[in-house]
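Methods, example record. To illustrate the input and output format used throughout this study, we show the complete record for DUF6985 domain-containing protein. The sequence lines were provided to the predictor; the line carrying structure tokens was produced by it.
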Amino acid sequence: MDKFIQSTVVGPMLQDADLDDWWQSQPVAVPFFDNQPVSVVLSGVLSATAADLADMDECLTHFLALGAADRLALSDLVWANYQEVVEAVGEDLDIRIDTPADVWAHVHPREIHISWRDRRDEDIYLSVECACDWEIEHGLQLVFRRGRMLTRVSQCDGQLTEADANDWPDEKDALLSAYNATFTSPKNQNVLE
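The corresponding predicted structure is encoded as:
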């Protein structure tokens, strides 16, 4: 008999037959990607508690409230990732993207992963793993802390923050610091509640 957990946002999530701490939904429409269907994976949880599910559903609710305008507002950050690959590869790159807004035509979401950071803030993060036309081998990873705000753009390496990927203090991570300034400043204390 299949084991599942129930999300109020994406419905039943089935436990993977081989990975006990891996729960996957059916694909859901994602407004951030013009309603393309993408499945959601909750990982790192053997037996989800009511608090885990509430945290996950809140994270998903925030992310699924983001739309095309939010995506376009992040074009420069994804464009910068493309530019890094262009600098590294040079003329061998078979694709040319002319403007930051054009970068999204070359990003293809594959799966959404939700997990808790295992160090420092131990907060919940939503990571969208994407195929992208300029980085065929490693893809593109877009990470949103609590599903609210982009806190990392990178190749798909499983790291949730630049601080963790580079063993930096959180304060050195520009996007993570921007999140902290936005959502944990004294005037915004109630935002995380």
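Annotations derived from this record:
The first strand starts at residue 4 and ends at 7.
The chain has one domain: 1-69+109-184.
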